Amino acid sequence: MSPGLRRALPPLIGAVVLGVAVWRTGTGPVVAGLRALDGWTLLLAALLAALTTVASAWRWKLVARGLGVGVDLGTAVASYYRSQFLNAVLPGGVVGDVHRGLRHGRAAGATGLGVRTVFWERLSGQVVQAALVLLGLVLLPSPVRSRLPEIAAVVLCGCLVVWVMWRFIAVAEARRPGLLRTVHSDVSRGLLARDTWPGVVVASSVAVLGYVATYLVAARAVGVTTSLAQLLPLILIVLLAAGLPFNLAGWGPREGVAAWAFGAAGLGAAQGMATAVAFGALMFAGTLPGAVVLALGARASAAAQKPPTAVTPGPVGTGSAHG
């Protein structure tokens, strides 16, 4: 597969999934999801976004410290806001994270390690989120419990993908000695160290709770009145799909899975679509501080590159009248 096709495939998959979801439910739920948002809802979403961003930035700080490329929390929060905004406006949903890793790595004098730090930080968050989803589906009286075999099949497919990737790494080890040793070192120091993994779990859990709360806000905004006990498993499933890297700036699997899950629970695919659209809009609104960070950074960079203004010396013998 060519590099160009490999880059284009994830957003293309997201666009196809989104198109199928809109085709099945119509454009009415999309309009309803956007119209349901008001100023107070957007403000609440912004506050929840601040919570999830700080928690995620703290997780990144812990992983970076473990790998020896530390970042202070203030810088981490600003960089995380910027990466979230880029993820929300650019195809693929990961461009902002790559940008964050490159910038931090260059600043630390270790570009590759900076990118790997962001990769492990994001992966750890996805692992914790997946564990919480499975735990919630097992413990809660889920209205989609009858669909657990399908969900289990998806999880098994995910495990198979991980296994194939691991086998690929093992094969690559024969060609590039030290690759597995690097992976083992990164995971041991950056994720599994005794002073790192508890914080990573707590930070990831707080971030997931923030996303759940934001999705609940979106559901109530569009008129979903079902109980939290029934709604929570649906939210967890949708958030798991939202974390897939096959999306168009965050859109695609989230809306498709929401339509399926809400339909399976008897709430209607259109209601699920409207909620997912409202959630997507709220998440985008929550990333807008990242646009400010991006603009300030561009302005500072332009000012640093601007050549100094030449000063023409005045005639000899002239001076100030107050001199």
Distance between the termini: 74 Å
Could you give the count of β-strands?
0
| Helix content bin | over 70%
Largest sheet: none
Contiguous helical run count: 12
Measured on Cα atoms, how large is the radius of gyration?
23 Å
The assigned structural class equals: mainly alpha
Average of the residue pLDDT scores: 83
- Basic shape: globular
Percentage beta strand: under 5%
Keyphrases for this structure?
323 residues, mainly alpha, 12 helices, 77% helix
Short recap of the structure:
By secondary structure, the protein is an all-alpha fold. It has twelve helices and no strands.
Give a written overview of the molecule.
- It is a single chain.
- The C terminus is likely disordered.
- The protein starts with a helix and ends in an 18-residue tail after the last helix.
- The protein has 323 residues and is an all-alpha fold.
- The chain is built from twelve helices and no strands.
- It is globular and about 55 Å long.
- It has a domain of 204 residues.
Strand and helix map with partners:
Blueprint: H1 3-25, H2 28-35, H3 39-66, H4 73-89, H5 95-108, H6 111-139, H7 148-175, H8 179-190, H9 197-221, H10 228-242, H11 253-264, H12 269-305
Helix pairs in contact: 1-11, 2-12, 3-4, 3-6, 3-9, 3-12, 4-5, 4-12, 5-6, 6-9, 6-10, 9-10, 9-12, 10-11, 11-12
